[in-house]
């Protein structure tokens, strides 16, 4: 190929071959998409996936979905969107330091929670109760990008990005080191920002964290993240796996257990969760009885997927605010105001 015919994309691909680790997933080695695309002249396939996710409706809805505190009144509590952005930044830093594919890492991180239910894990539990005990937000994220987005066509992402999305949590591990990084970055992000939000809500003080954990990880938000990120980089450099140094991993696990006891199961933080679950389950029952009221994108899948699966898709895609407003419209009577005499 002559120099005049070399595209920006070709330069990116050549740069990957020359600079990335032997353990990196090169874009040129991708298993590709289910439906072939004409290559873009200025973006690699993983860069293209990143943009597809960023411009999707499901991604935009994350700004109004709960992280830990349901529909918080304050402006500075995390939402599912801000969580995703923090995960992405942490993941990119680790990938860059390890000379892995930053574009693949970024795309998988941006899409990892794209199918998350409203009201955080309360919504996930509601779908497990009324639809399927095997329902999980990470499987739903995969369904969103494969089938529900873009008017029912899906985003047609590469195999590696989809693999990173569906394996970002749970027992399974992603097939690429970039996908495994997202799994670590997700935990680093939520552990630390949930502490921050719990302190803001005055249900936790930084001094409540056990001293032995603070001694290893640090006493501030930034210190803990720096410790965890540096530990992964040090332990994983030039190796075919991603891991934390054992003593940092142990302290991180202890901190997570501490959060489950003092935040995630805290009756103050979770006081509205049962109401949220009951609301979503009642909405589920309503639309199962009235599938003709579903938006057309979900009605179109009823014949192939069944009513309950399509209702679950509809509810899982809702924002907190939309679910509350829809429930109010369906079940809360309006005050009748007659004509003033």
Describe this structure in words.
- With 341 residues, the protein is mainly α.
- Helices cover 60% and strands 0% of the residues.
- The chain is built from 17 helices and no strands.
- It is globular, with a radius of gyration of 22 Å.
- 42% of the residues are buried.
Write the layout of secondary structure elements.
Elements: H1 8-19, H2 45-54, H3 57-61, H4 80-97, H5 102-111, H6 120-130, H7 137-152, H8 159-166, H9 177-200, H10 211-217, H11 221-236, H12 246-264, H13 273-289, H14 296-299, H15 302-305, H16 307-316, H17 320-331
Helix pairs in contact: 2-5, 4-5, 4-9, 4-11, 5-8, 5-9, 6-13, 7-8, 8-9, 9-11, 9-12, 10-12, 13-16, 13-17
Concise overview:
The protein contains 17 helices and no strands. With 341 residues, the chain is mostly helical.
CATH topology: Hypothetical protein af1432
Percent strand: under 5%
Query: CATH-wise, what's the superfamily?
Result: Hypothetical protein af1432
* Poorly predicted residue ranges: none
CATH top-level class = Mainly Alpha
Q: Report the count of strand segments.
A: 0
SS content category: mainly alpha
